[in-house]
Input
Amino acid sequence: MANFDLSATKSYDGDDGVVCISGWKQYANGKTILLTVNDKCSEKSWTRIIDCRPSTKSTIRIKVPKSSIDENLLITAEPLLEKAGGMRQSGERQFSVESIVSCTAKDTHDTQQDILSYLISRLSFKDVDVLPKLMSVDMDRKSYDSASLIITRYTPLVRKWLITVVQTDLPQPKFVFLVPVESSMMDFEVPVVFQAGCSYSIDVEGLDYTGGIIICHERLNFEAILTLEDIHALYQKAISHAGSKSSLCRVFYRNKKPKYFKKILRSRGGIMEAYMKDNSGDPGSPINGRLNGLFFMASVKPGSKTGEPMVDSAFGGQRLLVPAEELLARASNLYFTDFYCMKGSVHYVTLVMTSPGSDADRFCSSHLLSLDIRSRWGNPFLFYNEAGKLQVCSRKNFTVELYFTEDIDIRRYKMCSTPIFGKGHSTVGGVPKNPDCAKCNLRRPQQYTVYADTEQYSF
Output
């Protein structure tokens, strides 16, 4: 018989009972242990096989029915020796029993901590607001695909954090992490790669020492949009691709189907109103679904010296022509927001034009990268040269588009007909960027990955 100082206690865990077994590890000598809880009255038993390693917890919890927790429970521990050789199936392990020791589980659910945990477990958590304010959770996001949680506990009763991550528009996969509490404050980098433009919820639950009672709860909801660091990285890629060639730019222009402009003239008094940005371009762009505006093109005909617009358009056969200086006078602040391509070879850079002090300007100043229109080195896309002439990037297969955030009276400006190519109209909802292009994506597409030393599950 091995010299085990085996001990066990029993307590309640919500609607279940729990037997906590300790005192076995120091005598196990790295062997595999079979722990068994026997209910003498019902003759039922519950077992756990544990590989004894340095990282293995010294106290093992085994759940039993609540009806058995008040009975006389006999606990046995059997050190197992793994057999060498022999035929076995993949993953199967064969053992022989070395010795058996036993003890009787003692009641512990009358301690002060168990009573408090039991009372908390009786609360109705259908509305999480009833949970006491015993914790706080803040989020730090340096990139759209990552997040860190700064978790603070206000009570020593919290012994573990249960962290659950769910993509709200796609409930599966779900990731769950069980993290031991080592101090009153923890900075936890969530081991999930978030997908740009997707919405997520993260639940953080504080568990008591049994690991089964929820003491406190916080939920964070967020969307994986590009951070300022991401925007700057995208801007650097666009700068590298744009090159140094430029041409004179005289007009900004917008193509649509003829009936689009006719409707504005007939039913809106000629006022073309800014409307919500769709999901075209980078799915994580901060302006998607958040900023009203109107798209104009600034790029000129290849080889043009006098600033003629592109000959044809993919967005419609009717073109509105607005002198560039007039739009810049109304919306003089310029921001970089996107660099993308679709299926073809053409790359697009998107610049936002805002009126100083407007709501759109305040939004862009917080979420986008401000550009100096008088610096061709910091803004090779659209700038004034040394002679004070407006210039636009003229690299081949590189288009500069402008998102103008004010309404405009189209009755003041000229229109003309242009050839169309492709479908000849914009796509409802927008066309997302090509995720496989190395030139305009911050990272190659990734599947969900989990990398953590803590206990973790995905399903």
